[in-house]
Design brief:
alpha+beta
């Protein structure tokens, strides 16, 4: 698995830290830095979904999910970094990136208390990096503390409104996360409402973001509306043909047609 890191202008970013985490409990973690061409590579990665993160001084960190086939030539992963907006999303202490990465590993392992501690520690040392409120909310959600999770997501959405660089992206993610909280509680109408709001915002900035369509499909399934569920599943599969949920989405879609 390999790729390159570039800035918004397309120029390579040398010395960016690239971390790849296997999307399974106890999964492997690889780490390297980019060369003068902005290129990076990892050898010996296994088949499956990997979360690849790039971070560099003066830029907002970015994470993408990619599916790797061990015995095939995989397409290069491009990570495009955006400049930090002044006063927003600012990481004041770059040494704390390790804390953030450890939190991500704990979260993927289902160790939500430890992950929450790491995320809160990171935010306390980098109060401008409001994006981590999403991670904190996710921990609370997985612990069943839905009210606290929604509070964190709303804080994220409120602060994202002033962020010209990443605000709409984070706002859309916050809305989708609130929808997931409601769905986990069986509040399907509320969940559907927030997922739709997330899609409306996501279309403005990233028309090919598949996740909200999958979640909307699940709410329609739970309400017994197979036709609308199928429509959203088809959109999800088209936009995300190789995500970790694609196989399940295809199976559900086939079931709705029987």
């Amino acid at each position: 698995m390999g790729g390159h890191v570039a800035g918004e202008d397309g120029k390579p970013v040398q010395g960016a830290k690239v971390t790849a985490v296997f999307d399974q409990p106890g999964g492997s973690t690889f780490e390297t830095t980019t060369d003068k061409k902005g290129e990076w590579a990892f050898m010996g990665v296994g088949t499956g979904n990997w979360a690849v993160t790039a971070a560099a001084k003066g830029y907002l960190p970015v994470t993408v999910s990619t599916y790797v086939r061990q015995l095939e030539k995989n397409p290069k992963v491009t990570l495009k970094l955006e400049k930090q907006a002044v006063g927003l999303g600012v990481v004041q202490n770059e040494a704390t990136f390790q804390t953030l990465e450890e939190g991500n590993v704990f979260f993927k392992d289902g160790k939500y208390d430890k992950a929450l501690t790491m995320y809160e520690d990171f935010l306390s040392k980098n109060p401008g990096a409001y994006e981590v409120l999403l991670n904190i909310g996710d921990c609370c959600r997985e612990k069943g503390k839905f009210d606290t999770a929604i509070q964190k997501y709303n804080q994220l959405i409120e602060q994202s409104a002033s962020d010209a660089a990443m605000g709409k992206t984070m706002g859309a993610k916050g809305l989708a996360a609130i929808g997931l909280c409601f769905m986990k509680q069986g509040k399907l109408a509320e969940a559907q409402d927030y997922f739709k709001k997330s899609i409306e915002m996501a279309i403005q900035i990233k028309p090919d973001w598949p996740d909200p369509y999958y979640r909307v499909a699940l709410t329609y399934l739970n309400k017994g509306d197979n036709a609308k569920a199928a429509g959203n599943l088809e959109k999800f599969i088209k936009l995300g043909p190789e995500t970790k949920r694609t196989a399940q989405a295809k199976a559900i879609l086939e079931a709705t047609k029987k």
